[in-house]
Amino acid sequence: MEFYKKIQIKAHNKLILKIKIMNLKELEKLKIKNFINHPDLKRRLTLYCIATYEDDAMIDDYHLLTVFHDLQRNKELYKLEMPINLGEPS
Q1: Which of 7, 10, 39, 81 gives a 20 to 30 Å CA spacing to 16?
Q2: In the predicted model, what is the mean pLDDT of residues 62-75?
Q3: CB atoms within 10 A of CB 89
Q4: What pLDDT, on a 0 to 100 scale, did the predictor assign at position 60?
């Protein structure tokens, strides 16, 4: 499964967004300090945290990075691939 595709968007000859294709093996080796170039990963982590921790989910960048590193260390990044069931709307 691919997490995101390589996209480059320029405005006034300045690169404003750059995203590249990442698969699970690449994610296992990825070292990140922020989500500037990884918006899809941030979205997936946010959904994962909300589904896993429900009302106790902390979805600021610091905690999302902590969850990413925990999943990476425990070789559980595959959990970000699975569809997340957020339940029935209230």
Answers
A1: 81
A2: 95
A3: 4
A4: 96
